[in-house]
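Sharing a chain and its predicted structure for anyone who wants a worked example. Both blocks are below, sequence first, tokens second.
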Amino acid sequence: MSEESSTLNFTVSPEDAGKRLDALLAAKIEGWSRSRLQRVIDDGDVLVNQKESKPSYKLRENDEIEVELTDIPVDQFEPENIPLDIVFEDDLLAVINKRAGMVVHPGAGINSGTLANAVAYHFKFDISDLKFNTPVPDEQSKIQNLKSKIGIVHRLDKDTSGLILVAKNQETHEAIGEQFRSREVYKKYVALVHGGPRENSGKIDRPIARDRWHRTKMTVAANGRTALTLWKVRERFEKFTLLDVEIKTGRTHQIRVHLASINHPVVGDATYNEGRDNTVADQKIKKAIHDFDRFFLHAETLAFTHPSTGERMKFTAPLPAELNRLLLLL
């Protein structure tokens, strides 16, 4: 199980043989509707015998099913008074600049301190009852109503900072989610990597799967889910390169895994850079990397079409201070 997703595994029993894939998952996974799970399957987040499948696939006895749930149902968290850096907010959605170190969704033993907890608290105090479709008679009912209406549309790893989009009702969540699925949402990250690519730009089109031996890690694998990452050099340093990175898919740890796969892992990412941080010769730079206790990956730009007005909206979050300090050293 990763920081931002939950992986479930099933073996099809004789009793379930012949059922549709989406129907079986709806019966097995509490809190997830069949239509929602159909989208998960269409997004390539369900594997049957290590291969992507279709919702209508008729299951066979002993089929091995792996499901990656990247959005934890909202009834698993309580509101918490955690400050948020809100870049934009209206009645339908909000854009938040997430700090590094904050987990997005509860799960994997993490039930508090997440962005979802903070979002629930913020809406509890700042959204009037008039914005609900039905009357809210008391505070407890208001909290329950909020839980059914708040949705964090996508995800960022715990130690990735930057922009993330929150929908305030189910219709907005569905509309923005469809933009993500059809690749209409523009997401650009800034990453500092070890080494220097020979080219000034490139793409990484390599499938990603969960590592068979280390289940908290992902890896490039032929039987994985399709993943596409575009990169461009922003600035070159002696032993490092600053990249602009655009992702066309949203696989778990995608940027980190893809950049590591071309031998340019993200600085500070102990999970995937195989100790490269410890080989840095300049002691000041080496100390700075260890001191900020995160990796150098920041979701800088986010653009999407507002589901109500049709306006194309674009937001930018500046690099956090600790990342700028490292760049100054370089």
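Comments welcome. Residues 161 and 266 are 14 Å apart (CA to CA).
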